[in-house]
Amino acid sequence: MPRKRGSSSPPSAECQHAASAKHKKVESDVGGSPFNFDTPLSLFESLISPVGVEEFFQEYWEKKPLFLQRSDPGLASYYQSLFKLSDLKALCSEDLEYARDVNVCRCVNGKKKVMNKEGRVNYNHLKKDFDQKKATIQFHQPQRFKDELWRIQERLESFFGALVGSNVYITPKASQGLPPHHDDVEVFILQLEGQKHWRLYSPIAPLAREYSVAPEERIGSPTHDIILKPGDLLYFPRGTIHQADTPADVDHTTHLTLSTYQNMSWGDYLLDIFPGFLFDSMESDINMRAGMPRQLLTNVSVGPEVSTQLSTFLRGLADKLDKGKEELRSTDMKRDFVSSRLPPYSSDNTSIMPTGKMPQLEDLVCIRYKDHVLITVQPGQDEEDETTEMEVFVVHSLKNNRKIHMMGEPEEDDHDHHDHGEDEECPSQRVQGVRFPACHLPALKQLQGAERLLVAGLQLEPDSARLGLVLALWTEGLLEVCSPTEQ
Questions:
Q1: pLDDT in tens, 394-433
Q2: Do 211 and 182 contact (CB within 8 A), yes or no?
Q3: pTM of this prediction?
Q4: Among 178, 320, 346, 362, which has the highest number of CB atoms less than 10 A from its own CB?
Q5: In terms of C-beta density within 10 A (0-12 exposed, 13-18 middle, 19 or more buried), how is residue 444 classed?
Q6: First and final CA of the chain: distance in angstroms?
Q7: Torsions phi, psi of 14, nearest 5?
Q8: Which tens digits make up the pLDDT trace of 11-61?
C-alpha cells in the first residue's frame, strides 16, 4: 500500500520539547462524518486538515512528525465511534484468536511481555488481563469488522496507491504496552478515547525497512513529548522511534494507527521491474547475450574488468531508460497490491455484480470503480506455444475478501502488523481479472482514460472485437452503460 518520496531526516529545529513542538489547532463544524469521502484526495485532505496536502508532502512526509491538536467535540465523537473499549465484547463473538486477531502485552523494564493465551479470545479473560494485569490490548486490522474503517482505508488505499493497514491499541491507566521501537511504515495516529502520552525520538535508521526495538540508552532525549486527546492526530515517518503510555489519572486510552508504504521504496520498485527490463534488453542487445568469462563463477574474487563490463551494461540500460526505449513492467508489486487491497466500500455489503443493460455498439460506456482497476502487460500463459506472446491482463480488486485484508501470517513481534506476504499457511487473495490479446491494449487505455466512451469508437477492429471486449468487462462487473448515444 503507500506510499514515499525522498529520504531526508528531521531537521534539528524539530528536536525540541512539547512546549515548542510543531502542532496546529483545528476547528471544524462537523455534520455527520467530518471526512469528505467524495474522492480519495478529499478524504486525505479532511484527515490532515487544516494542513494542506501539498504542504504535508513537502514538509512532513518521510521527513518529520506532525501533531494536529483538535478541540472539536464533534470530531472527537466521530473518532470514538471508529472503535472503543466497549466494542470488544461484541467483537469477541467473531471467533477471534490470540496472536492472529488480538495481542495482549505490556512493557516491563523496557521489554515487551506477551501475555497471550491459547486459541480463541474470551472476553472475560481479556478484560481481566486488562483490568488486573494492566495489559495493553492490540486489535489487528479492525477494518475487517468495522465498516467505517473499511470506508476510510479503502479511500486511503486509492489515494496512496498502496496498502493501508490499521491496529487499535487499548491501554489501561499507568501502563505502557510496547517498549521504544521504530516501524517500517508511515504512521497516522488517531486518538479515539482518553489521553495518551507520546514521546518521539530522532531515527537511528531513517526510513527504516524493518521493525526494531530501540534500547533506552541509545535513543537520547525526545524530540516531541506530547499528550494526544480525542480528535487529535499524530503523523510520523517510518524509522521514527516512539513509545506511548497512559497517564495515571486517565482510566484508559484507545488509539488507532493507520499505516502505509511498507516496502514501497525506489529500491523495492527497482527490484520489481528490473528483471523484466533486463530480460527485454537482452533480447535486443547481442553484447548482453555474449558469454561471460570462463570460470567466473568459480573464481574466489571478481576482477576489475568484470566490474567495468557490468558498469558498461548498467550505463547502457540507464541510457535506454532516459530515451524511453524500453517499457517498464511491474512483475509483483502491482499484482500484490490489487490482490491484497480492500474491495470497494459498499454500505449494504453487496457483492460487485454486472449492473445495468448489456452494452451495445451504440452505447456510451465507462469503467466502474476505476481506482480498483489496473491494466498490466505480461507474457501469455499458453504453455503449448513455444513462442511467448504478450497479453493484456486487466486486474481488479472488486471481489477481494475484506475479512482477510492485511492478515499475513502472525509474527512473534506485534508491531504494526503490516505484513501482506502471501504464505501457504495463511489466507491470501487470488488475482482477479480478465485476459485479452495484446491488440486490445489501445482500446483498454481509451476506456481507462475517458470518463465515458462510445463502444463503436474503440480503437479495435472489427465491431465483433469491440463488443467482445466490453461484454467481457461488463460480465466481470468492471464496466457499465452510461446512457444511449444522443443523435
A1: 999 999 999 999 997 544 444 444 444 333 334 456 788 9
A2: yes
A3: 0.86
A4: 178
A5: buried
A6: 44
A7: -85, -10
A8: 333 333 333 333 433 333 334 789 999 999 999 999 999 999 999 999 999
